[in-house]
Design goal:
This protein is mainly alpha-helical. Helix content is about 55%, strand content about 5%. It contains 25 helices and 8 strands. Strands 5-6-8-7 form a 4-stranded mixed beta sheet, with helices on both faces. The protein has a two-stranded antiparallel sheet with strand order 1-2. Strand 7 and strand 8 form a beta hairpin. Helix 1 crosses helix 11, helix 12 packs antiparallel against helix 13 and helix 23 crosses helix 24. It is globular. The relative contact order is 0.12. The N terminus is likely disordered.
Length: about 675
C-alpha cells in the first residue's frame, strides 16, 4: 500500500493482480487494440516515407501497409505483455531521526508545490509570476531529494493495480459516448484548410503531395513550418479513395470518433499505469477537466474531441499519454515489447504532426533525466529510442528542403500558462496537480517521471527560457506547445487520490468518502470552467445531426460556388468561402484559401499582393481598389470565376468592368465568369 508522509492509504482488497496478463478482460482487449493501433499507424508512417522516396501511389502504399498489419498482429501474439508482479517490501526502514527528516522534506515539497500551483493560477489577479518558478523549482528539488536519497531499492516499486470490470466499463462507455458526441460538435477551425485539404487532394489524385497544393498545383515549396513528416492526412485521403467516399466526410465522420475514443482510452491507460487506487474517480475528474476546459482555445480540452482530427491535437490528446504509458512500462519491465512500443510511439507521434519534433524530446528529457539520476542507465537509454524517428525524419527533411523560419510573435511564460493550463481556479488546480503529482502516483518509476515532468515544466516557465528557445529554434509562434509535456488531465485526475484525514484509522469510512472529495473537485471545475462545446469557445455549437466541422452558412456558399464554376482559372469569393473550397475539391483552386499562409510561401510580393487585393475586394473592403489594379490582379492570378455577396455592389461593378459577366446567382451570391473564358 502506498503512503503519503507516512500515512497508509486505504486500498481495496485484491487490488494487486497475481496474473493480470493471463486473465482476459475488457481493459485487456482494448489495451491490446490500442497497442495494435499505435503499431499500425507507425507502420503506415514508415510506408509513407517509402512512398515519398520512391514516388509511390497510395494504392501501392495501402497494399504494403496491409502486409505490415498481418505481421503486427503476429508480433503482438508472440511478444506477450510482461506479467505484473506483486508489490515487494521496499527495503529497510530508515532510522527514526532520518524518517523525521524525510517526512519534513516531503511536507516541504508538497507545501511548496501547492504554493507554486496557487501562484500560477493567481497570476491573473496580480501576483508576480516569479513566485511560480521559484516555488516550483524548490518543490521539485525537495521532491527529487526525497526520491533520490531514500534507501528504497530502485527496482522494488509497487505494481499497478487492476481496475475493476465496472471501472473499465465506465471508461469504455465514456470513450464511446465521447466518440459519438464528437460527431455533433461543430467548432470551425481555420487550420483545417491545410490539414483536410491534403486528404482531399490525396483522395482525388492518389499521390502524396510534396509541394504547395493550396495556392498552386505543386508549383512552389510547401508552406514553411510544415515539413512533410505527418502521414495522417495522407492515410485519411488514401482510405477515402479506397472506399470511394469524400475525404472530408471520412475525416469528420470516421477519423474523428475513432481518434476521440483512443484519446479517452489513452487517458484511462495512463491513470491505471500511474495511479495507486481510485482509478474510476481519477478518470472521472480527468474527463470533467477536459470537458470544461474551453476557457482557452489552446487548453487541453480544446485540443481534444472538438479538434481531434488535426494531427497536433492527436499528438497531445493521444500520443502524449501513450508515450508516458509505454515509457513507464519499459522502465519498469525492460521487455522487448515495451521497447518496441517506445519506438513505435515516437514514430506515430511524428506521423500525426511535425509538432512531435520538439514535443517528444521534451517528454523524453522529463523521463530520462530522473532515470539517469537514479542510475537506471539501461532504462534511460531505451527511453531515448522514442526520439529516433521524430528527430531523424526532421533532419532528413531539413536537409532536402531547407525550412523557412516561421514569422510570428513568441509567448512569455505567463502567457503560455494562461493559454495551456489557464488562469484562475482551474489554473491553480492544474498547477497544484503538476507539482504534487509525484506524491500521488505510485512509488518508483511513476514518481520519478512525474518529478521529471514537473522539473522540465518549471524550467520552461522560468522567465526568458521560452523566448531563448524560440529564438534559437525559429519556432516563436508554436513553441508554447512544449508545455504539452504535462499530461494535465491525468495529473488533475490524480488529485482524486489525495488521502483523507484519519484515513489510516478509519480506512472503510475514508474509502466511502473518497467519491465526495472527487465530486467537490468536479463541481469546482464545472463552476469555474467552460464547456468546450460552448459558443464562447471559438463559436462551437452542437448540431442536431453528425456534421462537418465548418460554418454551415459559408459551407453552403462554397458548395454553390464549386457547383456552378465550370471555367478555367481560380475561384474568387469571400474569405470564408475560399477557406472551405479546398475541403470540397482539389480540381478548383481558390484565389486565397487563407491569408496567413501567404507569407509562409516562397512567392513574390506580387503573388501575395494580388491575392490580398482580390480578397479584400470580395470581402467588401473599403476603399475600393482602382479598376486598373483589379484588372491586373485578375489577369495575373488567372481568375476564371467569382462569387461575391449580392450586397457587395462595388465588387460586382469592378468585376464587370474587368470583363466578367453574370453567370449564376442565388439568394446570397452573385457569380460572374470571365468573359474571355466563356
Amino acid at each position: 500500500m502506498g503512503t503519503l508522509l507516512g500515512i497508509r492509504l486505504p486500498t481495496r482488497a485484491g487490488s494487486h493482480p497475481a496474473s493480470r496478463a493471463t486473465r482476459p478482460s475488457l481493459a485487456g482487449a482494448l489495451d491490446g487494440l490500442t497497442q495494435f493501433g499505435v503499431l499500425a499507424f507507425a507502420a503506415w508512417t514508415l510506408a509513407f516515407d517509402v512512398g515519398l522516396a520512391a514516388h509511390l501511389g497510395t494504392t501501392v502504399l495501402l497494399a504494403i501497409w496491409a502486409v505490415c498489419l498481418g505481421g503486427i498482429a503476429l508480433g503482438l501474439v508472440r511478444l506477450r505483455p510482461p506479467a505484473v508482479a506483486q508489490a515487494t517490501p521496499a527495503g529497510t526502514q530508515p532510522e527514526p531521526s532520518a524518517l523525521i527528516r524525510r517526512r519534513m522534506l516531503a511536507a516541504a515539497a508538497i507545501v511548496l508545490g501547492i504554493g507554486a500551483g496557487a501562484a500560477a493560477g493567481l497570476h491573473s489577479a496580480g501576483l508576480p509570476w516569479v513566485w511560480t518558478p521559484v516555488l516550483g523549482l524548490l518543490s521539485v528539488a525537495a521532491t527529487g531529494a526525497w526520491l533520490l536519497t531514500g534507501d528504497t531499492d530502485r527496482t522494488q516499486s509497487p505494481a499497478p493495480g487492476e481496475s475493476s470490470s465496472a471501472a473499465s466499463l465506465l471508461a469504455a462507455g465514456v470513450a464511446l459516448g465521447a466518440a459519438i458526441f464528437s460527431l455533433f460538435i461543430v467548432r470551425p477551425d481555420a487550420d483545417d484548410v491545410y490539414y483536410v485539404s491534403r486528404s482531399v487532394w490525396v483522395a482525388q489524385h492518389g499521390q502524396i503531395p510534396v509541394r504547395d497544393i493550396l495556392f498552386t498545383n505543386q508549383a512552389m515549396r510547401p508552406i514553411a513550418g510544415e515539413p512533410i513528416i505527418s502521414s495522417i492526412e495522407v492515410l485519411n485521403g488514401a482510405l477515402a479513395r479506397l472506399f470511394g467516399v469524400s475525404a472530408t466526410s471520412f475525416t469528420y465522420y470516421i477519423a474523428v470518433p475513432v481518434l476521440t475514443f483512443l484519446a479517452v482510452w489513452a487517458a484511462w491507460l495512463l491513470i491505471r499505469r500511474w495511479a495507486r487506487h481510485r482509478y474510476a474517480l481519477c478518470f472521472t475528474v480527468a474527463m470533467v477537466y477536459l470537458a470544461w476546459g474551453g476557457v482557452s482555445g489552446a487548453s487541453f480540452g480544446s485540443f481534444h474531441l472538438v479538434r481531434i482530427w488535426q494531427g497536433k491535437a492527436s499528438v497531445v490528446s493521444i500520443m502524449v499519454p501513450l508515450l508516458y504509458v509505454y515509457l513507464t512500462e519499459w522502465a519498469e519491465h525492460r521487455s522487448k515489447r515495451g521497447l518496441v512500443m517506445v519506438f513505435a510511439a515516437g514514430v506515430a507521434a511524428a506521423g500525426f504532426s511535425s509538432v512531435a519534433v520538439y514535443v517528444v524530446p521534451v517528454i523524453v528529457a522529463a523521463v530520462v533525466v530522473p532515470l539517469l539520476l537514479r542510475q537506471m542507465i539501461r532504462e534511460a537509454l531505451g527511453a531515448v529510442l522514442a526520439l529516433a524517428y521524430p528527430v531523424g525524419a526532421y533532419l532528413v527533411q531539413a536537409a532536402l528542403t531547407p525550412q523557412k523560419v516561421v514569422p510570428g510573435v513568441g509567448h512569455s511564460a505567463p502567457e503560455v500558462w494562461g493559454m495551456v493550463l489557464m488562469f484562475g481556479v482551474v489554473g491553480a488546480i492544474g498547477g497544484i496537480a503538476l507539482w504534487t503529482a509525484p506524491w500521488l502516483v505510485r512509488r518508483g518509476v511513476p514518481a520519478l517521471i512525474t518529478t521529471g515532468i514537473a522539473g522540465v515544466a518549471t524550467i520552461l516557465l522560468v522567465p526568458g527560457v521560452l523566448e531563448l528557445l524560440s529564438h534559437s529554434q525559429g519556432l516563436k509562434p508554436t513553441l508554447w506547445r512544449t508545455m504539452w509535456v504535462v499530461p494535465a488531465p491525468v495529473l488533475v485526475g490524480l488529485l482524486a487520490t489525495v488521502p483523507l484525514p484519519a484515513a489510516a484509522r478509519f480506512p472503510r469510512a475514508a474509502w466511502r468518502l473518497a467519491p465526495v472529495a472527487a465530486a467537490v473537485l468536479c463541481a469546482v471545475l464545472v463552476a469555474f470552467g467552460l464547456p468546450v462545446w460552448s459558443y464562447s469557445n471559438a463559436e462551437a455549437t452542437v448540431a442536431s445531426r453528425p456534421s462537418w466541422k465548418l460554418n454551415a452558412y459559408w459551407l453552403a456558399g462554397a458548395f454553390y460556388a464549386v457547383k456552378t464554376d465550370h471555367h478555367q482559372g481560380d475561384l474568387l469569393s469571400t474569405r470564408e468561402v475560399m477557406q472551405d473550397v479546398p475541403l470540397l475539391t482539389s480540381r478548383i483552386r481558390a484565389v486565397n484559401p487563407r491569408s496567413v499562409y501567404l507569407p509562409l510561401l516562397t512567392a513574390s510580393a506580387q503573388f501575395t499582393g494580388d491575392r490580398q487585393l482580390l480578397t479584400a475586394l470580395a470581402d467588401g473592403g473599403q476603399p475600393l481598389p482602382a479598376e486598373a489594379a483589379v484588372r491586373a490582379a485578375l489577369t495575373q492570378v488567372g481568375v476564371g470565376y467569382a462569387c461575391v455577396l449580392r450586397s457587395n455592389g462595388g465588387a460586382r461593378r469592378l468585376l464587370e468592368q474587368a470583363g466578367f459577366v453574370p453567370a449564376a446567382h442565388d439568394h446570397t451570391f452573385q457569380c460572374l465568369q470571365n468573359n474571355d473564358g466563356a
